[in-house]
Amino acid sequence: MVLVDHQVGLYSGVRDIPVGELKHNVVALAKAAQVLGLPLVVTTTAADSMWGPVIPELAEVLPDGSRVIDRSTVNAWDDPRVAEAIRATGRLKLIITGISTEVCLALPAISATAEGFDVYAAIDASGTFWQTKREAGLLRMQQAGVIPIDYSTAIVEILADNADPLAADVYTALDMPFAVLVGQIASALSKS
């Protein structure tokens, strides 16, 4: 799981998805990844100057002692610390999110794909500054072989089996309102 540049300053310009929904999806993705034991690589760019720190909602759910790699490169993959942290996970499949979609998400996703990784771009856990930029980023990623996906499907695909002992915790972490309601209805029906 690679979370690229979910920073206060960048969120201030997001216009293609409601910011509250974006924060919800990113936080839920990070929480569910931890339930499943997925490694997290978190980056910022120019955190002390231009774009500020990681959004507080995400910082709050990162594991204690998490390292956020701050860099100056536009493409996170171009920073050797980021590429090495990703390689060090030993994973060949990556889920990447980023603000902005066409740069922070697309550029490292395309670079990782070119190096042989299977990359899934969590589109609803990414955002950008207007719809045209979103569409251009999506097209460019798809042409490079990056697989667009939504945050909850990415996690549920990894879960694979609702009988898994982690399933309830995964769905709780995903915090999908309709799933919560369905779970409450099922629980109520099983008690009657």
How would you describe this protein?
By secondary structure, the chain is α/β, with parallel strands linked by helices. Helix content is 50%, strand content 14%. The chain is built from nine helices and six strands; from the N terminus they run E-H-H-E-H-E-H-E-H-E-H-E-H-H-H. It has helices spanning 8-11, 19-35, 56-61, 80-88, 101-114, 131-144, 151-159, 167-174, 177-191, and strands spanning 2-4, 41-45, 68-71, 93-98, 118-122, 147-149. Strands 3-2-1-4-5-6 form a six-stranded parallel beta sheet. Strand 4, helix 5 and strand 5 form a beta-alpha-beta unit. The model has no long low-confidence stretch (mean pLDDT 94).
Provide keyphrases for this structure.
alpha/beta; 6-stranded parallel sheet; 6 strands; 14% strand; 9 helices; globular; 50% helix; 192 residues
Strand content: 5-15%
Helix content: 40-55%
Shape: globular
| Count of extended strands | 6
Task: Point out poorly predicted stretches.
Answer: none
Largest sheet: 6 strands, parallel
End-to-end separation in angstroms reads: 41 Å
Mean pLDDT: 94
Specify the number of helices: 9
- Structural class assignment: alpha/beta
Strand order of the largest sheet: 3-2-1-4-5-6
Order of helices and strands: EHHEHEHEHEHEHHH
What is the C-alpha radius of gyration, as a whole number of Å? 17 Å
Short note summarizing the structure:
By secondary structure, this protein is α/β, with parallel strands linked by helices.
